[in-house]
Amino acid sequence: MWLTWIAMKSSRDRHVLDQMGSALEHGNLAQSLLISGGAEILDVAVEEIRRALLCEGSRQRDCHCRSCETAVANHPDVVIVSPESRSIGREQVAEAVRGLAVRPLWSSAKVVIIRPAESLSREAESYLLKHLEEPPAYGYYLLASEQPEALLKTIRSRCQHWRFTHEAPDETVAGPISITPVTLEHLVELTYGVRQQYLASGDRNWLQLWETLQLGYQNLESNANPDLVLNAIEAVWLREGQRMA
Length: 245
Ligand SMILES: [Zn+2]
Description:
Layout: E1 2-7, H1 11-25, E2 32-36, H2 39-54, E3 78-81, H3 90-101, E4 110-114, H4 122-133, E5 139-145, H5 153-158, E6 160-163, E7 171-176, H6 184-201, H7 204-221, H8 226-244
The structure holds zinc ion.
The site of zinc ion has 7 residues, from loops.
């Protein structure tokens, strides 16, 4: 089975994300956010930030609340703005602003994700400017960009700017991944990676694999025989892997 995922193991990137989490906790996170960095890191960062903002539960990585378990594309309190053609036009931004004006359905917050923000047309940027200044009390704008310098200076200055690195993540896992050793620690790693895949793609095959890994973890924790746990995971892993390949 071929899996690719990225764990944000670069300590600097992890640190930036932790700082954002702490700012959120202390009420210091701005409602207009610009995050910049390399594409792979932005994938992880966007997902983690939107989870932190929308979580209806513990806000921990192992949270299983409705919001955390719903793929970003399917979450009712997320508005995603991406280029329809070459750029993001003014009308697309206007529609997102109107979407944000409708109160959140599930969470206490609602997020407009604009990515890549450098695709905003000049008209779209001008339109967005004044809305960045006064989002509704529950509203967040999250602009993700690999080239933040391409944005209007006024856009940048109105956002709280968080800089991730452009470096390739320290650890990219690609290729056949071993389920072994069947240890609690390794299962946590696998579960996290599979969960990221599910949340990014919304593909239910990943969900099934994720649930199987969770069950494996629980069984192992209750002292089940590791060989039996391995067999159970392997059965789903191989079946789903073939379907996804
Ligand atoms: Zn949650």
